[in-house]
Give the backbone structure.
Amino acid sequence: MSPLAPLNGCLPISNLSFLGVCPRRTYLVHLTYEWNMDMMSILVGVLAGLVVGGILVFAVLNAAMKKRSGGILKEAEVQAEALKKEKILQAKEKFLQLKEQHEKEVRERERTVQQAQEKTKQREQQLSRQQQDLSNKEKSMDRLKEDMEQKISGLDRRREETEKMHAKQVNLLENISGLNAEEAKKQMVDSLKDEARTAAMSTIKDIQEEAKLTANKEAKRIVIQTIQRVATEHAVENSVSVFHIENDDVKGRIIGREGRNIRTLEEMTGVEIIVDDTPGAIILSCFDAVRREIARLALHQLVKDGRIHPARIEEVVAKTKKHLEEEIVEVGKRTCIDLGIHGLHAELIRMVGRMKYRSSYGQNLLQHSREVANLSAIMASELGLNPKAAKRAGLLHDIGKVPDEEPELPHALLGLKLAEKFGEKPDVCNAIGAHHDEIEMTTLLSPIVQACDAISGARPGARREATEAYIKRLKDLESLAMSYNGVTKAFAIQAGRELRVMVESERITDAQSDEMSMSIADRIMNEMTYPGQVKITVIREKRSVAVAK
């Protein structure tokens, strides 16, 4: 056990001997105890010094902190005062802005109100003026009303007086004539009708006589009307060709990428190519039949070959043009050989070949010219004239319809110039130029060619008119005539160019027959489509039969 154990056990020193402890040993323990007490005192003093020092340090620090906090507070008070002043200034500025905006809005409202007041004043002034005008008009209307009432009363009195006078006059006339008013009125109307009908028919006859003097002008008008009625049909018929294809996939190849192929084809041929939804067909549109034929042949070669691109198109079109020109010349030569015509200029032979690709009113021009040539030769032989010259003139009479350029001349005069240019004889040239009366006929060949031209074009079916349509037109003519009262029979003759109408003599007078012919002609012109002109003849026949016994 440690010597300090008794101390640690809190035993007093006086009890050490009682416990049997050695005095020396007790002294040492006492010294140790004193030493421990001194140490305790020192420790207590040190602790007390530390406490006092801490209190002093705390006091000093507290004083310093108070001093510093006072400075901070003063600084904060200064900053707060500055911030307060700044905020006050901002508030004043905001107040001034709001005040200015408010004053502006107030001024705008005042201006709007002022404008509205001005408009209201103007409207009130306008309304007052209108009211004043209305009052003035009402006053004037009242005056007019009074005047009209006075006039109406005066007119009523006059009407009554007039009726009384009329009744007196009617009674007087009835007593004198022995007829009542209705019978007299009927007789007067009948006489006026007869006079008006007679005057009208005489006027119509005068007009017809005058029209005969101006028949050329009237004929041109009729021709122009006919052209107007059939122009669209013939334009479509003579300017469009159809190229048939087996498969619609070919259309895309013909068009090409971004339309290059079809643009190249149109530029090279001068033909508009229409590729639409029509199955198995491509439309070629152009007034020049030769160009359409070149485009058709080139398309046929391209589709057959399968290689369709711009370079190939240019090559094929160039070859097709050359081949077609050779074919045109060959057709012209073969036609001249068939007809026995010799010595034609090469250019005229080429024009004869071009006739193959030209049509007139649906009639092929080359076939028409061959018919005219043959008919002219036959007619000239019967009349004892030169059949070869007549055949030559008949073949070349429409040569002016196929020139390379298109001058502003009738085809007869243009054909005359071409024939003179290429060395044809004067009688042939005159027949060419006079077959439509463009120039005066000076030789006997001219009327022959003119007559044969009319014969070739006038025969039924020559100008691509279907038989059914031809028969229907004749029946329509006869039905139109039979729709009139008093008609017994109607005959369409001369291929529909003349209509003869038989009427009953008991029901139709001569004046009525004249009126009927004009009425039928007007209906035909307005309701029907026909080539040339139609002559209407109304026949009124009265037969008186007596038997002598």
Q: What stands out?
A: Residues 23-177 form the longest helix (155 residues). The radius of gyration is 64 Å.
